[in-house]
Amino acid sequence: MWIYPKVVAHRGGGSLAPENTFAALRCGLAHRFHAVEFDVMLSGDGIPILMHDPEFGRTVSGRGSVCTTTAKALTLMDAGIWFGPAFAGERVPLFEDVINFCKKNDVWMNVEIKPAPSYEEVTGRVVAQMTQRLFSSELAAPDRNNPARLPLLSSFSFDALMAAKVVAPDIARGYLVDVIPPDWFAQLNTLEATALHTNQKNLTPALVNAVKQAGFGLFCYTVNEPIRAKEIIAWGVNGFCTDRIDLIGPQFV
Ligand code: G3P
Ligand code: MG
Fold first, then answer.
1. Residue 111, strand partner residues
2. What residue spans define the domains of the chain?
3. Is 34 among the catalytic positions?
4. Ligand 1 pocket test: which of 8, 52, 220 has the largest number of ligand atoms within 8 Å of its C-beta?
5. What DSSP element (H or E) covers 26?
6. pLDDT band per the 50, 70, 90 thresholds, residue 145
7. Which of 4, 92, 100, 233 is most open to solvent, judged by the fewest CB atoms within 10 Å of its CB?
8. 10 annotated active-site
């Protein structure tokens, strides 16, 4: 089942701001988005930070790896200049700071656990533990049965999600796949996942029906054309993330 927002700003502010930065989150908010997807990776000293690529060179300059660089050094890197001079000086955010920002601004989070290669299990565990700790009051509150208030953890890494399930079973999980595999049902059940997250390009109405009939939510990435968004929603897709937050608004569906 999908109880979460239907339209989600991809990587914070879609294609309007440097991905996975506070500038992106502010941009999403300026476009009235109160639902966001972003990527979380571990620094070399085991601190969760927002980053998509395990190697430097695209959103931060230079050569090197996130998994061998301290969080302190990462947060001093410029994650905005690649996107445009107006964003020069935008830093790599700490996941903890982003959670606090989102809570303060009433922004729902789809936290994509994005492990660097061979850091799958530890990344899932640490990200889930931090999420659980920072949402402990929501988890303990009498209305905790409104899980829409809590983030949704997703990942392409089955092992990361299994680790998340062990340490934070009450934080919902979505399994990310590019192509829906033949054993999707067994995998979702093993993960005790809430939803399947998949590439909209590989979707068919029959697959949508099967996933929905099985009782799982179905979320798609990344839908940037309004016509396509209407089509997959008509098929029964529950929600999607978009880079075109200027074209597809939070109330689009
Ligand atoms: O979470 C959906 C989407 O973000 C997955 O792909 O590469 O944009 O993180 P990517
Ligand atoms: Mg992502």
1. 38, 153
2. 7-242
3. no
4. 52
5. helix 22-30
6. low
7. 100
8. yes
Query: How far is CA 142 from each of CA 22, 171, 240, rounded to the nearest angstrom?
Result: 32, 16, 30
Q: How far apart are CA 149 and CA 171, in angstroms?
A: 11
Residue type, 85: P
Distance 221 CA to ligand 1 centre (A): 7
Over the stretch 197-220, which tens digit does the pLDDT of each residue have? 999 999 999 999 999 999 999 999
Q: Which residues on adjacent β-strands are paired with residue 181?
A: none
Q: Give 123 Cα–ligand 1 centroid separation in angstroms.
A: 16
DSSP states along 109-134: EEEEE-PPTT-HHHHHHHHHHHHHHH
Token digits of residue 63:
């050569």
Domain covering 7-242 in this structure, CATH number: 3.20.20.190
Residues with CB in 5 Å of ion ligand 2:
39, 112
Q: For 153-179, write each residue's pLDDT tens digit.
A: 999 999 999 999 999 999 999 999 999
Look at residue 142 in the predicted model and tell me its pLDDT.
Answer: 64
Residues of the chain above pLDDT 70, percent: 99
